């Protein structure tokens, strides 16, 4: 099987590591772009990322599990399976780390396991390349709006 290199995205946010982790997880509903990057769209009433998993509540109240948490180490790391709107298997994997950096916290997102999806995984890699920029841009903007410099 051919191994497809992981997609890696990094942003620096101007707040302490613990605050960056808390906003990424407990505050996800406030910054995730549901209108463009969700199963149910902007009408979805809730989005939760906690030590159990990543779940969107659809407009009809049905939960849509996007992934199961594999590692939960606040405030430095979380890892989860990733399959928004799809069955749990096959799935890719998301690893997010938070570490001190000049000016705040370096947040590194690594999206791997593309080969588990076969050809659809390869085809969706380009969408995720741009999609994670939009998603993480919302996160950075939320922290900036909360008074945390970029």
List the helices and strands and how they pair.
Blueprint (H helix, E strand, L loop, with lengths): L6 E7 L3 H9 L2 H4 L14 E4 L3 E5 L5 E11 L3 E6 L9 E10 L2 E9 L6 H27 L5
Antiparallel strand pairs: 1-7, 2-3, 3-4, 4-5, 5-6, 6-7
Structural write-up:
The protein has one domain: Alpha-D-Glucose-1,6-Bisphosphate, Chain A, domain 4, CATH 3.30.530. The mean pLDDT is 93. A hairpin with a 5-residue loop joins strand 3 (53-57) and strand 4 (63-73). The protein has helices spanning 17-25, 28-31, 119-145, and strands spanning 7-13, 46-49, 53-57, 63-73, 77-82, 92-101, 104-112. It is globular and about 40 Å long. The protein is of the alpha+beta class. It contains 3 helices and 7 strands. 27% of the residues lie in helices and 35% in strands. The chain has a 7-stranded antiparallel sheet with strand order 1-7-6-5-4-3-2, covered by helices on one side.
């Amino acid at each position: 099987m051919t191994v497809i290199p992981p997609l890696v995205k990094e942003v620096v946010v101007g707040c302490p590591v613990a605050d960056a982790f808390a906003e990424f997880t407990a505050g996800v509903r406030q910054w995730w772009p549901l209108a463009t990057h969700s199963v149910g769209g902007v009408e979805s009433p809730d989005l939760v990322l906690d030590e159990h998993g990543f779940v969107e509540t659809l407009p009809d109240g049905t939960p849509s599990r996007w992934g199961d948490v594999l590692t939960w180490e606040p405030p430095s790391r979380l890892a989860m399976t990733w399959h928004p709107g799809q069955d749990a298997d096959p799935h890719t994997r998301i690893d997010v780390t938070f570490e001190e950096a000049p000016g705040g916290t370096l947040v590194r997102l690594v999206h791997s396991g593309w080969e588990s999806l076969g050809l659809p995984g390869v085809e969706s890699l380009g969408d995720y390349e741009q999609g994670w920029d939009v998603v993480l841009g919302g996160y950075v903007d939320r922290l900036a709006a909360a008074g945390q410099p970029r």
